[in-house]
Amino acid sequence: MSAKGPTIYQGVDTIRQVQELLVFASLLPVDGKLREALNLALELPPETVQKRVGSLDDVHPHTVKGWLERIWLAEDLTPAERRIVNFQSDSDSMAAAVQELREVQQITGMQLTASKI
Question: What is the pTM of this model?
């Protein structure tokens, strides 16, 4: 139990999201596939992907799939971006990453979900 009462102020939800991401990342296996994929993504300069990312009107899985395809199936991907695509295309790597995420979700009792802002 916290020594302080609930913190209620503007932006607290976003702060919690950052904190939750930090916990999720810290629980990933050091030699795990999801950590490997996240490291590939973190090494990218933001502007390389940012030019293809647009706002979503709908977070339905089929809509998100199309959005992801516009990002990762573009013709002008950099070699670093291609490594991320190759990771996603490797079914063994993705299966391991999915299992690692499920294990973290089981430990925390939370899951990462998309929601419209």
Answer: 0.85
